[in-house]
Amino acid sequence: MKSKRVCASSDLVSGLREVHDMQEFDFYINLKKPTLGLYVRKGAGLPDLADASDWQFEGHEWESELAPGLLKELDANGHAFQELGA
User: Fold this and answer.
1) How far apart are CA 44 and CA 17, in angstroms?
2) Which residue segment(s) compose the domain that 57 sits in?
3) In total, how many domains does the chain have?
4) Distances (CA, A) of 49 to 28, 40, 46, 52, 73
5) pLDDT digit string (tens) for 40-71?
6) 6: left (phi over 0), alpha (psi -120 to 50) or beta
């Protein structure tokens, strides 16, 4: 019985490491065009946008919740736009 607990415990630790290693991104919605979303690395803010006031912070997303194409764009550019509902 103890070996099952150890196994379950090591699975939990392994799962926690995966979550800890997983990237988190901030998600913003464009207030002038609410079907346009923007992802940036957590805490990066919107320093490069001409009018950051057009964007409203909506929350956080884990990398596992994003499509592979968005992740590639985030890796290459530090941000990714997404047409919502598409």
Assistant:
1) 23
2) 22-83
3) 1
4) 12, 12, 6, 5, 17
5) 999 999 988 888 999 999 999 999 999 999 99
6) alpha
Residue 6 domain flag: no
The answer to whether residue 1 is domain-embedded is no
Residue 15 resides in a domain:
no
Would you state the structure tokens that stand for residue 82, as one six-digit string? 């997404």
- Residue 57 tokens read as 């912070």
Cross-strand partners of 30: 55
First to last CA, the chain: 50
Give me 44's structure tokens. Answer: 């990066």
Q: Which of 56, 60, 61, 59 is nearest to 30 (CA)?
A: 56
Average pLDDT, the chain: 83
Return the DSSP state at 34. Answer: T
* Residues in the chain, total: 86
